[in-house]
Design a protein that fits this description.
Rossmann fold, 223 residues, two-stranded antiparallel ribbon, 9 strands, globular, alpha/beta, 7-stranded mixed β-sheet
Length: 223
């Protein structure tokens, strides 16, 4: 890739609520044993080209993931509340089945337009994008301009990582709302080039120019 600084986008490891299919948002649940293993695998996988520092969401699941990576790589972590996950309001802690049963009409509208329709008392994608905008403009973009510097890492959450990626790549809202990031998938970004990799024991096989959806369907959005 080019000379500009690389960015690793890392989602927190699997949590108890991930395992149970419950929405977390601004609430939290602890990492599972697999989630802790995933965090350790990130550190091992990035060992050949480690980040110099981590910016992390202060929510417990992301904070713990960042701490595991940082300890293994001996790098600092800085928390930033703007990286916290999109807030799902009254739906936090509920399963998708429970949510669909309680708010069927709302969920139909949200499926058609996630950018503008959020959960009751929660944020929509547009709200979350407005929250992350100053983080990208004032803090992140200046940090990514250094030539030849070690990569930077962000440890955050699925939806907010994809909204952040959308801002960095100038993606349309309709594209951003289709993206996802499973716990075991890492993204690497440099300028407008993005690639992804699945966690490995000691190396990562990066696939260029693609984004990984939750369904494992590949979507080309950058070249």
């Amino acid at each position: 890739m080019g000379e500009r600084r690389q960015l690793y986008l890392i989602r927190h490891g699997q949590t108890e609520w991930n395992l149970k299919g419950r929405l977390q948002g601004g609430k939290d649940s602890p990492l599972t044993a697999l989630g802790r293993q995933q965090a350790s695998a990130v550190a091992t996988s990035l060992g050949a080209n480690p980040p110099s520092s981590i910016l992390a969401s202060p929510l417990g699941r992301a904070k713990k993931t960042a701490e595991i990576i940082a300890k293994a790589l001996d790098i600092p972590v800085t928390e930033d509340e703007r990286l916290g996950e999109i807030r799902f309001g009254a739906a936090e802690g509920m399963s998708w089945c429970e949510i669909n049963n309680r708010w069927p009409e709302l969920m139909t509208r949200r499926e058609q337009d996630k950018w503008h329709v959020g959960m009751p008392d929660g944020e929509n994608y547009q709200d979350a994008d407005g929250r992350i905008a100053p983080f990208v403009t004032d803090l992140l973009r200046p940090k990514l301009t250094g030539n030849g510097e070690a990569p930077l890492a962000i440890v955050g959450h699925e939806t907010m990582n994809m909204i952040l990626l959308g801002r960095l790549l100038d993606l349309e809202p309709s594209t951003v709302t289709c993206l996802g990031q499973p716990n075991h998938v890492l993204y690497r970004l440099q300028d407008r080039l993005v690639d992804h990799a699945h966690l490995g024991d000691d190396r990562l096989d990066w696939i260029p120019g693609m984004l990984q959806k939750r369904s494992d369907e590949i979507l080309h959005v950058a070249a």
